[in-house]
Specification:
2 domains; five-stranded mixed beta sheet; two-stranded antiparallel ribbon; 7 strands; globular
């Protein structure tokens, strides 16, 4: 995304001190619709009164265009850390969100997975598993963060990146994930 892009977590994350989207799902959705300049297409009765979930959306990003009009560069992202990522990639797709809000233009759907989804030659491991989404696997994550430069690890970038990781949060999430298994 461009440097001036707005990038926010939409899914639950107790380690972000002041998240933009928090509380009841309906309130988060209303704020998202407003942020994107779109029109609301859902009713509060469509969701449980105590739903604080994310409706299948973990990350939201958009590029401000100098006005409040709809029709801008928007990315919806889903993060998945298990083999079920194939099905989860649909939860952030334009089709999954048409009942939530108007969409002058389809957003880009991205699915972030923390494992290497490649064959030995660098091609996708099982390309038919990718369904109208931009998959960001481990290699792409490392490249986008600058840890990989020209296919080789950058010690300086890796060290700087590691300094910014919230290890207590990661370890707590690992314990939660292990308990869920």
């Amino acid at each position: 995304m461009p440097k001036r892009a707005e990038v926010h977590l939409f899914g639950k994350n107790s380690y972000i001190p002041n998240p933009r989207y928090k509380g009841l799902l309906t309130k988060k959705l209303e704020l998202l619709v407003t942020d994107l300049g779109e029109e609301k297409r859902f009713s509060d009765k469509h969701f449980a009164t105590n739903d604080t979930g994310d409706n299948g959306l973990d990350l939201i990003a958009w590029t401000p265009m100098g006005d409040a009009l709809n029709g801008r560069l928007i990315v919806f992202g889903q993060c998945a850390a298990t083999a079920e990522w194939v099905g989860k990639q649909h939860t952030s797709s334009p089709d999954a969100w048409r009942g939530i809000m108007s969409q002058l233009s389809d957003h880009t759907n991205m699915c972030f997975i923390p494992f290497d989804f490649r064959r030995h030659d660098g091609s996708w491991y099982k390309e038919p598993s990718i369904h109208n989404a931009v998959v960001v696997d481990r290699r792409r994550i490392l490249d986008l963060t600058g840890v990989l430069v020209g296919g080789h690890a950058s010690e300086t970038a890796a060290a700087a990146w590691a300094e910014n990781l919230l290890y207590p949060a990661i370890n707590n999430n690992r314990a939660t994930a292990k308990a869920d298994l």
